[in-house]
Amino acid sequence: MIPLTLAQIAEITGGQLRGDPGAVVTGEVVIDSRRAGPGGLFAAVAGERADGHEFASAAVAAGAVAVLATRPVRVPSVLVTDVPAALAALARFVIDALPAAAIAGITGSSGKTTTKDLAAQLVERLGPTIAPAGSFNNEFGHPLTVLRADAATRYLVLELSARGPGHIAYLCRIAPPRYGVVLNVGQAHAGEFGGLDQVARAKGELVEALPADGAAILNADDPRVLAMAARTAARVVTFGVDDQTAQIRAAGVRLDDLGRPSFTLLTPEGQAGVTLRLHGAHTVPDAVAAAALARELGLGLADIAEGLCTAVARSRWRMEVRRRTDGVTVINDAYNANPESVRAALHALRHLAQDGRGFAILGHMAELGEVSRASHEDIGELAARAELAGLIAVGEEAAPILAGARRVRSWTGEALAVPDGAAALDALANQLKPGDVVLVKASRAAHLEGVATILAGEDEDR
Ligand SMILES: Nc1ncnc2c1ncn2[C@@H]1O[C@H](COP(=O)(O)OP(=O)(O)OP(=O)(O)O)[C@@H](O)[C@H]1O
Ligand SMILES: [Mg+2]
């Protein structure tokens, strides 16, 4: 954070100052009062469960200089009418004060966090980099991330999400990117958008925001993404796995016994071997996209390849693979679920379970709209075709998965509907033996990560 006085903060946000105008905010801006610290600014937000204003005093007691609030509080504050808008104004001020920082945005339906974490680990080789933790990608997380930048920052690698038209354009106004990566257009939130073409419209707002001297980094394997080339003033750079014309490409992809990909990274400057520490073939396009971005920012091929080989999964519950000491393997992919990512996870499960039995504990995929039922049935069918030994659907909304699995007449595995995660654990208890692999996956709302954690136990020998 660049130091700002409360007077400046009031001016930038158009807010009303209630406190010492000369007091200086030097620390992090947070919306979680438990994370408030010395020199910071606490933004009070009224959420579904709690109202941040009630924690204003606690935040100041923890060291926050003041509170950004929409109603009077008993501690030093700047009163504004809209906290996200105030955060956006502050973030834009910081960006304008740091013209030397190169800004990259990453969007897509699946793999934003994975790609952002990989890209950040590459770009950090070039200089001080700000990237969000986890999925800080919306009207709160995005400005909070940007506000962490200071005079030393050279790169911002940002994750941009959309739940409707205009959202990405809004995030791009807060921190105008010069580099934009679009990963894919998939079913995630498609119900809210009204279909894949609308998803593409919204994701493409990122490339529309790029300047002529910027670069639009597009997935050549996804026609809806490639078509975005027509919507940008920036130079287009393509990446991919299947499309041989992609400028940055992975060839010869193979997986080890834990599903970790190796491939040859092909670039105009030459080629290099890469082995990822991430699991699943679907991480390859993410890695290639990260490579393409790092290359645009000036990182050389050797550094890119070495960086990809050493990069770790920074954000939890995405394809975490744990091999228990009893020989059972647990895949915790419970962070989120949409048709593309469940398909990717089932492919990885099938690969890992080559020499044993595969089980999947699946919760529902949220926000799919009218294609929801059919999408769940298709996933069930895919699971049955993967010849899983057991398929457990958690919760009523996941039940169509089993209906889809039953469409595969030749499938001999066990299908089970359970009400919650505890029942799923009960159903598997005493069944698992060495060599078995269990995938746990569902939308965030299902909170199945606890199931995966219990299943994985404390024994990790990864
Ligand atoms: N290229 C990809 N294609 C399909 N699935 C993917 C891809 N990359 C990652 N995934 C899977 O998608 C899920 C979410 O991954 P990740 O958190 O990286 O995506 P995200 O786009 O940031 O999601 P969110 O919208 O929730 O922030 C994980 O299960 C991950 O394994
Ligand atoms: Mg994310």
Please explain how this structure is put together.
- The protein has helices at 6-13, 56-61, 83-97, 112-123, 141-146, 167-174, 190-193, 196-203, 205-208, 223-226, 283-296, 301-310, 339-352, 372-385, 400-406, 421-428, 449-456; strands at residues 4-5, 16-18, 24-25, 29-30, 41-43, 66-69, 77-79, 102-107, 129-130, 155-159, 179-182, 215-219, 235-240, 248-255, 261-267, 270-275, 320-323, 329-332, 358-362, 390-394, 414-418, 437-441.
- It contains 17 helices and 22 strands.
- The two termini are 37 Å apart.
- The strands form four sheets. The protein has a nine-stranded mixed beta sheet with strand order 9-10-8-11-12-13-14-15-16. Strands 17-18-22-19-20-21 form a six-stranded mixed beta sheet, sandwiched between helices.
- The longest helix is centred in the first third of the chain and has 15 residues, at 83-97.
- The model is unreliable at 458-462 (pLDDT under 50).
- Helix 4 (112-123) runs parallel beside helix 11 (283-296), helix 13 (339-352) packs parallel to helix 14 (372-385) and helix 14 (372-385) packs across helix 15.
- Helix 5 (141-146) links the parallel strand 9 (129-130) and strand 10.
- It is globular and about 75 Å long.
- The chain is α/β, with parallel strands linked by helices.
- Residues 112-113, 135, 137, 159 line the site of magnesium ion.
